[in-house]
Design brief:
The chain is of the alpha+beta class. It is built from two helices and two strands; from the N terminus they run αββα. It is an enzyme of class 2 (transferase).
């Protein structure tokens, strides 16, 4: 909320790219709204999903370390098997 829409749009695109590059082609990434996303994983166990999540978190941390931005990227997640 403290930065303009262009900054927010760039951040959302960057986050989508990070997530999309770490999930399989048969998994599906959706933007729910704002800064909320849903990933539907097919044929994965919860342990697999948690490993993917750790890779996503590491990528966000690398972005924070590499960028000289006035903000930090952070994320939380929840998982539900179906």
């Amino acid at each position: 909320d403290r930065f303009d829409h262009a900054v927010g749009d760039d951040l959302i695109k960057s986050c989508c790219e990070v997530i999309a590059n770490r999930i399989d082609d048969d998994d599906v990434l959706f933007r729910l709204g704002g800064d909320e996303f849903i990933v539907i994983f097919f044929g994965k166990q919860m342990e697999d999903v948690e490993l993917i999540w750790k890779k996503i978190q590491l990528a966000f941390q690398a972005m924070n370390d590499a960028r000289q931005k006035p903000y930090q990227i952070s994320a939380s997640h929840g998982c539900c098997p179906y």
